[in-house]
Amino acid sequence: MFILAGLIIVAVIIAIPFTFYWIPTKLGYPKTGKILGAVVGLSFTVILFRWYFEDELFTKNEAAEFLKEQNIELHDDFEIVSNWSSSGIGEYHHLFTLKITLKDKAKIVNEIRTSDNFTPGLQEERSSYIDLDRNDYNTGPKELLNYETKDAFIRELFRSRGKGFAPEWKKIKIDKIKDELHFSEIDD
Question: What is the pLDDT of residues 113-127, one digit of tens each?
Fold first, then answer.
């Protein structure tokens, strides 16, 4: 079944650029057909390449943009240790780990500790996303939680996007032992 689905996808990918070539050629515009076929074929190739190698092409600038959304900015150079994303119908998961400097780590920990809603000394992670009593996933306000567990300092962002759309949940976790920042995003 998987092979059949793959063959159908390949056939569609070949058929669309060919159609953009064939129709103008049959109407008497062969040069236009070649240009359209090449542009559409190249566009499909670039889109598929970008989609297939999305995790390998993840950049430091993209990581910084994800962090900036939660008011966290890294001033020193950092290293992308790992990056993984997965998407399916109606869901998206993205996880990455950064190796950061002690200076940036101390700055972020201080920002979390000095936030208005900081909760120290929790035994385990809490989550606005996993709270089973929530009835406002689609209409609730944006929440930014800041807390400490025995292993990490955590900042969570929860934002509903309206009825019919999955809420957005992003977590930044600063490891207490290692100089690592862990980011996770779930859109279900």
Answer: 999 988 888 767 765
